[in-house]
Amino acid sequence: MEFLLTPASVLLLFAFFFIGSVGAVFIERLFSDNGKMAGFWGHGFALLGSLLGLAISVSVLFFGQGIAFTLPTVFPNFLLDFRLDGIAAFFFGIISLVSALASIYGFGYQKHFYGKYRLGVFSFFYNAFIASLLLVPIANHALFFLLAWELMSVASYFLVVFENQKEENIKAGFLYFLMTHFGTVFVMIAFFLAYKATGSFLFDDWRAATGTITPLIQGIIFGAALIGFGTKAGIIPLHIWLPEAHPAAPSHVSALMSGVMVKTALFMLFRFFFDFFPGAPMEWGLVIILIGSLSALLGILYALSENDIKRLFAFSTVENVGIILLGLGAGVTFFSIGLESFALFSLAAALYHTLNHAIFKSLLFLGAGSVVEATGTRNMESYGGLIKLLPFTAGFFLVGSLAISAFPPFNGFASEWLTFQSLFIGMTSAEMIIKVVFFIAIGSLVFTSGLAAACFVKTFGATFLARPRTEEAKNAKEVSVFMLLPMGILALLSFLLGINATTVVASLIAIIASIGLIRPVTLQFPFSEFIQARADFAAILPLESIALLLGLVFLLSFGAIWFVTRSRKIVVGPTWDCGTPLGPRGEITSGSFSRSLVTIFRGILRPTRQSTVEYHDEDMRYFIKSQEIRTSMSDPYRKGIYQPIGVVLHFLASQARRIQSGNVNMYILYLFLTLIILLLWATHV
Amino acid sequence: MNTLLFIFQLLIVPALSPLGIGFIRKVKARMQNRVGASVFQPYRDLWKLFQKDEVISEDASWIFRFSPYLIFAITILIGASIPVIAAVPVALDFLPSFSFLPAGDFLVIIYLFALMTFFLALSGMDTGSAFGGFGSSREMMVAALAEAGLLFSLLAVSVTAESGNVVAMVGNLQYLPLQALFPLLIAFLAFIIALLAENARFPVDNPATHLELTMIHEAMILEHSGKRLALMEWAAANKLLIFILLAVNLFFPWGVSLSYDSFSGLLVSTLLVVGKSAILLFGIAFLESTMAKFRIFRVPDLLLTSFVLGVIALAISITF
């Protein structure tokens, strides 16, 4: 047990991933079995490492004692400094949990790739990706962090383009690579400004330097961090890579990217605003809330108009990141106006939703992976009736849909309820500007939750209910037990995290309250507050008793009605068809389900529609031979923001080309001039 | 004693809800110069449906079979958690943690209704009929937009009453001066629009038609028959009564008894609640007899009006 709280356990964890990644490449060379062994090796070690990670974070949180250590390096300004404190352990635990389940899923999913793609290479990047995900929250040195961050981006890039026979994956990967480095640039700006202001790359020195930084520099640091990490988190309008890259990756990697990778960015925002440089002015809180409101509402609208199941989930991730930002922004605002207990409450809401989203989004992505595996397509218009063919997948998927639409007693409701409450508190604040912003946030959140329900009725209904619309859907088969087991665990967790809301919130508050400590890391849980918070919360929302009551009432009414009507017969017959044969064309599809809402929000979504009609006789237009209608959404971000930027960049690049004449003498002249300028500058300084 | 009250709260809404439907139908019939069926006809309809055998589509899954029970149970739970004639939290004697109080949180009520709509829409899609699918699509459109007006109007009440629980709200509101309740009048308008939309009444939906172009709620339950249809109809009646009771008890809280002890107080409270509910039901029937249903794409305008009214009410109540 004590071993888990030592640096050795953390190093052992990374050793697992190292063996998993490098070993798989060799294993693939040794066995000629289409990569089967290599896949098992890679996923197996990833599973071992993740389970160890889960054990470490649980013991850190349970015993209230962090892990901090430094490994020596040969570079003077580069330290491998680790710090696993309460908040890091929380994220570390989320990442480990989802990685462990995704790896189990991988055992079943990998047969997808036998003979087609090299599983050794996949395992290499898969392990590297999880290892870097786990490094990000515990890296305690700016340059070390950047290394981990970059490793995470590169490894996930290779996973996105892993299925490189599809051209759209390559494109998606390129967009992802571009956007993620755009974000990294801003992260670097924030880091180097912080270095300039504090004179150190160590995060601990930043914590110690609180209050010595000028407000202007601090503001620029915050802005750069928000843009840099916001790109990774997928806030609107920096989200454009999410719906391309998340669907392109293999499904369990999508679950990791959507479920936990975006969370690492939120974790760093949390660190920046509450740990490194606490005491951000109120305006930053309000800005975060506004960004959150925009991302939540637009995210769910785009999700609603989507017919590709994995793209839909990627947009829904944008929405949920928005909801998390609402809690985070409310926390910043409350801290700045001195309402610490409310801030704690809002941050608990944000962290709770982070945890919940990791759980149910991974569940949904894994479910989508099973559906794609069974039908061979991501287009929801081609599904239908899968509940009878994939009963277990359907059941788990339903739980995920209920949780993400925030229905009691599932976990999504608990965190959304908390987010609502923190917004309600802010709304009654005395300052007008705070009031207005919180008002907007409430409006956005209520529409978001309503539309989320519509979106997931559509997703579940179009995928699993009614009759199959294509031959592929008709012949779908339930997926293997390796793929069902992780979904089952996640579904169970969704339920348990919902009904144990009271305990979860109390622990989250304790984790947040443990921030802001100096080495050696020990977490001091303030037990009096802990108990008080728990008691307060239990008085407000005991979800377990709501669940119990609902269950009881359900059983009572079911029992009574069954008893009264037990002698009635049930005849099974065809659906009423109004005289026309029942076919797939008579059923509602994903596109038509959301059409009315898309029409209502056409000002935002800008649906496009092209139709072509061919007549039997062009002069007498009564008899239509064929008709084709294409509907789609226009992408205002690409057209309005990214394309103009691309044009400008292209122009600048073509101007810069002029100095590249291709003449070697010319280049030597450039070198010479540069040298002289540098010398002059050096002597001047 | 408490156990009796517990059972009373569970049963009162489902016992009275068909009467509300019957009352609306009777008023509508009289306004059309018809005698109309007895106000007790909905009870007979339910009885009849429970006697009948069922036909279930071969395409339907367990969602279709399970949904009516869940939907019905949700309405029972909410019905037990709201103040009907007395705003008193009731728990079982031998199990005090078994209380309806937590389900009376207004966000919980809204989300439980949303859960009900979710399963209603799913069971509409489940049979693969074109009617069910479109009914579900329209229902989710209406529900998604109506939620905002509902939440903001209840939030205005909650802010004024300084509580999130409907039982406590009714009690707190009674002690407030009359002028403090002014914003609630605006919130009431917002709530009424949400009520009409959520309960598939005019001008959003026509509860009396089976014309495919216009129906929303009826389209979803078209494939249900026998006891499952009875449950769906009964649940819809419960939902209407719950909304009516919330409307009269939250926005006009006077007279609602604050304990179960005094018999005379309960009598007065009962008379007042029945009177107020009858007026509101009459209003709904009057509205349905005198105005036409809106075109489906006019409905969002109405629902946004409800949202804006809710925002105004809330803005007034947090400013003053």
Secondary structure elements and pairings:
The complex is a heterodimer of chains A (685) and B (320).
Chain A: H1 7-30, H2 36-63, E1 67-71, E2 80-84, H3 86-109, H4 119-138, H5 142-160, H6 167-198, H7 203-208, H8 215-233, H9 242-248, H10 251-276, H11 282-304, H12 309-336, H13 340-375, H14 386-389, H15 391-404, H16 411-427, H17 432-464, H18 471-474, H19 481-499, H20 501-513, H21 527-540, H22 543-564, E3 570-573, H23 590-600, H24 602-605, E4 607-615, E5 624-633, H25 636-656, H26 664-684
Antiparallel strand pairs in A: 1-2, 4-5
Helix pairs in contact in A: 1-2, 1-4, 2-3, 2-4, 3-4, 3-10, 3-13, 3-19, 4-5, 4-10, 5-6, 6-8, 6-9, 8-10, 9-10, 9-12, 10-12, 10-13, 11-12, 11-17, 12-13, 12-16, 12-17, 13-15, 13-16, 13-19, 13-20, 15-17, 15-19, 16-17, 16-19, 20-21
Chain B: H1 2-31, H2 41-51, E1 54-57, H3 62-81, H4 106-126, H5 130-161, H6 166-174, H7 182-198, H8 217-220, H9 226-251, H10 263-290, H11 299-319
How would you describe this protein?
The complex is a heterodimer of chains A (685) and B (320). Chain A is 71% helix and 5% strand. With 685 residues, chain A is mainly α. The longest helix of chain A is centred in the middle third of the chain and has 36 residues, at 340-375. Chain A is globular, with a radius of gyration of 27 Å. The relative contact order of chain A is 0.08. Chain B has one domain (2-33, 47-319). Chain B is 68% helix and 1% strand. In chain B, helix 1 packs across helix 9 (226-251), helix 7 (182-198) runs antiparallel to helix 9 (226-251) and helix 7 runs antiparallel to helix 11. The longest helix of chain B has 32 residues, at 130-161. Strand 3 of chain A pairs parallel with strand 1 of chain B.
